[in-house]
Amino acid sequence: MSSSINFERIFKIMLFAMKASRLHPNVPRNFKWICQICCLYGLFTFAFLLLSYSTFHDIANKDFSRASANGCLCLNFFVITMFYCVLVCYRSNFSDMIDEMKADFVRARYLPRDDYDIVVKYAKKGKDVINIWLSISGCVTVLFPLKAIILMMYTGVNGRFQYYSLYEVTFPDVIESRKDTFEVFLFSFSLFLFFDVYALFMYMSISPLGAIFMLHSCGQLELVRKRVLKTFSKESDITPIENLKIAAIHLQKIYR
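Given the sequence above, the corresponding structure tokens read:
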């Protein structure tokens, strides 16, 4: 039974994203971490600045369709920056909640089978939330590079090969004049691909967390409800007062 409920195994996709983006609560906050964050977020910010330049350029040229598309990508930067701030500023809170869930999973191994099944049921629902987020975010992430690759293959087959970046952007003049060269194409494609993947990792790091914690709390509340219902049952092997005391302590722990 112990092998079927393990926090690290059930939520491994989310935890991998948190570790890859260096925002897992257990990642040591030292000089190495600062350098890693500066490199990752520096590239992410640079891609945002290029997208912002293109957005304002398109607005000036009244190309509102392309400006809207790039503007939506820019909004991602602000959303992810908010996620980043939340994970860093409330690191200890997230760490405590994760540790509490791990402890609940360990305690669940020694519960009666029907109580254990309740904990597993809500853990699996949390895993389903991660899979839904992965499906949505993954499809969006793959869409842009796939479109660029298909367009390049199409133009190559038709004998008029052309480079396509992930996003339709207008670069500053010094880059725009050379954007059809292989070097600039490789640079822009790699940079925006990083922007794409980094956004995926950030969404996967924090977006499912709230739902996972709430679902786990729902499972714990269901255990409390079962205990209260059994208070005056003949099946209970402890006194009603003691049973209610245990339920109250459990309830207090959930809501603290």
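The chain has nine helices and no strands. Try to locate this feature in the token string yourself.
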